[in-house]
Queue: 4 jobs
Job 1
Amino acid sequence: MMTVSAGSNPERTRPDQQLPDRSGTGSPPPGDATMMDAPATPATPAAPVPPPAPPVQPAATPPAGGSGTAARQGGQSWHRMHYAVGVFLLAYGVTGLATAALLWGDRRDEFEAYFASGPAVGLLVLVKAVEVLLVLITAAGLARRRDMWFVAPLAGWMAGFAMFAVLDVLKGRWGGLLEHVLYLAGFVVLLFLSYGLSAKAQLAAAARARREAGGEAAGDGLGEGRLTRTQEFALSAINRLPRR
């Protein structure tokens, strides 16, 4: 058996022939070109996947005409013609106080004609104290550009003239009645004018807010349909006034 095997393949029986490496760590067998050409590369660990970034919240921007703008530029219902209304109220109140201080005796006699001589002085002092408060409110509204603050002075002087008109009727003072009715009508017109200017300024502020929003309706802006019937009437009357 040994002789037949050696005779069939004499190369396997040569003493100087090295046996093939069967451990798997040696060179690849001849004829395997793929294993010989491809160098062994160390395996690289996979890079860690970063966690997803949190969503970026958009910065909150205050709406146009908001509280910050209103604090700097006055209320949204302030119209430039409110300066004239405020200056008139301020001038009227200061003039009335100065006249009462200079002509105190005449004012006292006038009050005594309506009331008894006893409470006339006390009532005169009370009326002038209320007028001082109305002047201060007017000055504050003019300085802070708050047209709604003009309502209290207008309503206060209207109430005063209405009270004296009723007293004129009771006392039969027809000359005084005409004077007080004219003053009352003037302050009613002034209140109506201020109310209409406020509505006009609100519409202008709403239109400006829509333009700043790119043509879209502003969130809480006032529109044409949100005006009250009185505002619409006052605005219509103001628009009919002749313009120079």
Note: The chain is about 60% helix and 0% strand.
Job 2
Amino acid sequence: MNSSSHGARDADHARDLITDIDQWSRQGRRLSSPAWFPLLVVSVAVFAALPFALLLGGNAAGYWAVVAPLSAVVTGWYFATRRVQLPFVRGTIVLVTGVVMLLVVAAFLLWFAGDSADFLPWIVIACGFGIFALVWRSVPTAFFAASTAVAIVVVALGGWGNVGVIMTLVVGVGAVAAAMVELAQADPGRAHA
């Protein structure tokens, strides 16, 4: 047997193995990305705000006082029951960010009202998901956070009425789009099926 052909086969086999390891590593990182679930929770909470605002007579504070803690509990359950956990430091940052988001919304709803209260949930979402994007290294989540922040500025400077409706559409659609991109990245085969 020719040792050079044997060596070439070994080199080809090693290259194939390294390619497989790289592919599995990329797929594992994508599958372990938890960003899709909080994005989906936000989209559901945001889209549900419109019908509840009609039912509650425009009382957005009452809606967010219930939905913010409920969203935090549902998202916390998701993170606690995942098979793939974030490393301790990153997980702690996500936990602290979520708790701060909840406390800021609760404090603001207790002490402030009026037009500035219309923007609070959106500011909290933009800032919180900006931090999440950094921790999860998620481009779709970063794009969602940035588009939410830009929408807040545009709506505030534009002085338009119906702040809640405009922001609901922008944030809700942005969250759904980012969640779908996250899911497509996690399983590219299903995205094309």
Note: The mean pLDDT is 81.
Job 3
Amino acid sequence: MNTERTAEAIQRYVLERTSTVDQIWTDSESVTLDTSTAMYWARPADWIVAGEKWVADAVRVVAARQPIFVTHGLLLPLEGEPLHLNRPEVMAALGRRVGDGLSPLAYAELFGELYSGWKIDGPVVRPFSATQTVPAGWLVREADHFARVMVAPDAPPVAPPAFEQGTGGEWTLTFFTHNYYLLEIDTAVDVYAWTVTGGPDRPANWERKTLAKRVLLPLP
């Protein structure tokens, strides 16, 4: 991970305007910023998009201000400016690459985590995670997700992502996602159904429908 470029991107795109940086720590695989408003931890993200040829680094940034943890996503392209994926206009523009340098599954995965919050309009989407290390949200990849990946017996039926592309390059991507959060004595998820449309000549548009709220997970 290019830690110098990552630290610069966090300060330019992610930090709140009122924040001042008190100290920065870096090593080969991490950047940590102590600021006046929160602590920011940046680590390489294991997202599918990290393997795309035009991407140098995919970075998950967690802003911690106890007991609140907010996840941000940064893509550092081989060429061009960093992309702060929590900004809807940036995610919309990224949709131009779907089917041409960006796999539909990779695009859906980014929505699953970075657009898992209760509010997903701009200017910056702020998905909350339960802890510093637990993802804010998940993309549902298989129909048995709520039996195998995260047990939630009362979750609604879901299906793997589906992608359709027309002869002119226009496409429709449908998928399911969920968040994960803490209640007073329980843990729960909200389940969402997505329809995202786009094409090489226009930014993507999306619609998210809430299928279920506060689906409780079994106690360990």
Note: The mean pLDDT is 96.
Job 4
Amino acid sequence: MGPDEWHPHVHVARPEYEGLLYWLHRFVSAPLSGDSLLLRGVLPPRGDRSEPRVALWDGQDLASSVAFDISITDTEGEPFVPLTHILVLRRLAADYLNGRPGAFTGTDGFNIPVHDLRQRYRDVAGECRPTIGDALGVPLQALTAYTQDWENCALWGFVLVDQATGRYYARVPHGEGTEITVGVDLRLRDDEGRPRDQVGMLDVYLPSLAHDRDLTRFQVADGDGYCDMVCDLTEFISGLGE
């Protein structure tokens, strides 16, 4: 049975929905932002509801729960960049806590009040901008997602170097049976100084560069005591699609 045949009631592109699940799952135990709302659930599309539903609560009292019907595509039908979901839900959570809940449509089977925010979701998506912390986290999502598939390197740490640069540490092969720790620098802001919502395909390029022993051509002098070599990939790896 193919993926599209798993459930006849699901009418949503699998990659976009899987991306939503992956990017949101960590907020089960950490607030979406400085407010108190945690993720209670990501509820799949079903029947005439073709897009997902996200449930939030305060982490203490289930009676605090609220659910939002959201969109995973923009007005043109294009899927949102994964980080967009975090940015938009952060805004909608703040709106809800400030008394702007959106259109109430009833309660679901878990007795959670539901609000249809699909159009609001699309509108807010165009207004939301990532922080530098968001930009720092984007490569980590990819790196931690694909670490198990890497044969030639492994994520070993990370740090925000300055307001425009993230350094991602990796263990890579170095000679017969040995490894070194390499710090890879990425640019976290675009040419206009705005934090990026896509920071580049480090998960794709790093294993290839490590396998080909090609990282040394990017080596720069640096006093970083946390690694054996620093490589500046800020020009080599730009934002996705650039």
Note: Confidence is low (pLDDT under 50) at residues 1-13.
